[in-house]
Amino acid sequence: MASLKDIKKRxxxxxxxxxxxxxxxxxxxxxxxxxxxxxxxxxxxxxxxxDVLSSLALREDADSHPLLAERGKGKALVVLIxxxxxxxxxxxxxxxxxxxxFIREKQEGFESYELLxxxxxxxxxLKRRAGMDITKVHENLVGTxxxxxxxGALLGQEVIELYRSGDYxxxxxxxxxxxxxxxxxxxxxxxxxxxxxxxAEGALVADYIYEPNATEVLDEILPKNIEVQxxxxxxxxxxxxxxxxxxxMDSASKNASEMIGKLTLQYNRARQASITKELLEIISxxxxxxx
Amino acid sequence: MAEKLKLEMVTPYKRVLSxxxxxxxxxxxxxxxxxxxxxxxxxxxLRVGELTYKKDGETFHIAVNWGYxxxxxxxxxxxxxxxxxxxxxxxxxxxxxxxxxxxxLKKLTSEDxxxxxxxxxxxxxxxRVQVASKKLH
Lengths: 291, 137
What we know:
The complex is a heterodimer. Chain A contains five helices and six strands, in the order αβαβαβαβββα. Chain A has helices spanning 4-59, 91-104, 120-126, 149-164, 214-290; strands spanning 75-81, 112-118, 134-138, 170-178, 184-192, 209-211. Chain A has a five-stranded mixed β-sheet with strand order 3-2-1-4-5, sandwiched between helices. Chain A starts with a helix and ends with a helix. By secondary structure, chain B is α+β, with helices and mostly antiparallel strands. Chain B has two helices and eight strands; from the N terminus they run ββββββββαα. In chain B, strands 1, 2, 3, 4, 5, 6, 7 and 8 form an eight-stranded mixed β-sheet that branches. The chains are: A alpha/beta, B alpha+beta. Chain A binds chain B through residues 38, 41-42, 44-45, 48-49, 51-52, 55-56, 149, 152, 206-212, 216-217, 220-221, 224, 228, 231, and chain B through 8, 10-15, 28-30, 33, 40-45, 68, 70, 72, 77, 79, 81.
């Protein structure tokens, strides 16, 4: 049985850990609120963009722009968005596994897949797996601050560049979509070629006036759409990460209090046992003197 | 015939405005254009510039930076990277940015990579100063 001193020491350590997890929970909660606001604020822009795209798709042929045309089923690029830091439950592992499954099962039926990873944790997990072809890793892309639009735009331009070079026939985006602080939804989305949102048939289609002309307008809008989608997924992923960390740290704090409770009980029992023992010794000592 | 036009302006960071207006003038890539209620469907790109709209006899100015406009069914959707209403522009900062860009441009030649970036920065700063000065009148 552990001595009194040992138990006391352990209670101290657990208390220290609990302080840390509590502080991390508070920080994540604050960051989550900010990230959540950013996600909500970005939605109208992305939604409007999707609206415009779908109305465009109604009017234009799929072959009218390189970013719209289907290319066949050769090589696909999978852009995986993970976090740079741990201590957030299954957040990073789950999404990495989702990407791994997507590639292993050859969903969408491409011949080969390559990975572009955002975030250190995704790379840590996938580089040890066989058959995962990682072409590029962006570590600390977002850093500790907020996700800003230029970050998404740069990544978007890089992806478009890769696609345009002809190395890949398709680009997929794998990320955690933010649903609530407790739940993240692992999402796989086709980024390129662009799939416009389906529009109900029989919708009234009037011709557009394009200025300067259709090609130039498409040239501007389609790459923009990629940037916006990546920006949005970065935002969602950031919010999910904070949410996941908050939940993980919350349950860690709870576990710590439970443990402290148990240890305190153990400590008190040990203390009582030693007092009883001492009393017995004194009494028996006194008895022997008497007789 | 509709009397008003709905103007919706959004940036990646927030919804800037959503209002019923009488008239909009926007800086298109091929030139400035005006939109009145019952305009035909239109899709066009914007350059850095000043967007103005009239509402109940009052005129509002907004500095916008790259984007595009869709007009359909009396709804005008403006998607821009940044949008700053005249009364929210920090004139001092805009002027500082302006002189910074001017300085940088003097040192660069048109072959430099940064030349284009600084040129854009100059344009943006110019527009901001121009738009900000309008709120005083």
